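Reviewer comment 2.1 asked that we show a complete input and output for one of the modelled complexes. We chose the pyridoxal-5'-phosphate case, as it is the one discussed in the main text.
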Amino acid sequence: MHHSIPLLDLKRQYKTIAAEVNAAVLAVLASGQYIGGPTVEEFERQFANYTATRECVACHSGTDALYLALRSLNIGPGDQVITSPFTFIATAEAISLVSATPVFVDITAQTFNLDLDQLAGAITEKTRAIIPVHLFGQPVDMTRLMAIAQANHLAVIEDCAQAVGADWAGQKVGSFGNIGCFSFYPTKNLGGCGDGGAVTTNDSAIAARIRMLRDHGRRGAYFHEAVGVNSRLDALQAAVLQVKLRHSDAWNAQRRAVAHRYHQLLSRIQGVILPQELAGSQSAWNQFTLRILSPSQPSQPGNYRDQIRAGLQCQGISSTVYYPLPLHLQPVYEPLGYQSGQFPVAERATQEVLSLPMFPELLPEEQEQVMHSLKDCLI
Ligand SMILES: *Cc1c(COP(=O)(O)O)cnc(C)c1O
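Response of the prediction step:
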């Protein structure tokens, strides 16, 4: 019997940990301590430990983590920050929110991540930092990126929003750059029951500055030394995240198994290119994103990938497009003056990518159903 297959099913995961989550949430409700306090502090210690960094500062979202990271490095007007045009808007948005200028560099077709061969060419005397994005869970080559950054005296802020638990050269992402930024939005690998985020760093001065900025720029009760924001993590979210962090490695292993099964099921299908892990890395597999190549003689006008997606939907298979428009061509960034054709690899990716159902509890028989539907839809 065929049933519809969602992109992600958070209810299935909740069922497996309901008793633990409920107990943790009820304990917070009974404690009367709802903002900050021991539950949040304990989660910060656990997450620093998980990422093998000295400090973790929790905040309201991944977007805030990026914003606070940039603020803590005093990046602002007149500064340039290099990042990928093929990411969620928040990466570039944070740069704009501190009144610095995002500078985009094209991606590689293999990883969907920044093309490190093109990085040096984008550095100017105004460049202050690089924000590599470990997109879909696949780490950037951090050995090489850090060498380029250090040679040019640039800060590195890792956007780890989609890559909790991923590692490069045996080391967790978020521990390479000056600062790692994480999101606990429900669809991320470690997701709360609401918004949440965190920064990780080995620099205690940066951690102290971010603690100050996330809480109205205060040091002490009512003494304010900078214009800060209200970006604290709720104790309820910290309680849920503590429970889920304990399962994180097991869930990531299940995601790897799902990715492995997709490879077995789909590798012989013509016209699709499957995502590959870079040697030396372990992806967190937040998404399983393949490319759908257009046939040389299309039977219908329009985007072929969109037709496949619609076909899958008719058969009850959810899929989605991360991302349909690269950041340099977004209306919001029109004033930056980028042109269509400037980042051909990213632009082509926006036409070809399709993310399939991916979550730890996805069943082998469901993956087979995805495979059969995809075969049916492709000409
Ligand atoms: C989700 C995401 C963010 C933002 O995280 P929020 O918690 O939703 O603010 C930033 N960058 C990337 C790459 C993301 O996927």
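Residues 297 and 379 are 10 Å apart (CA to CA). We note this here for comparison with the apo prediction described in Section 3.2.
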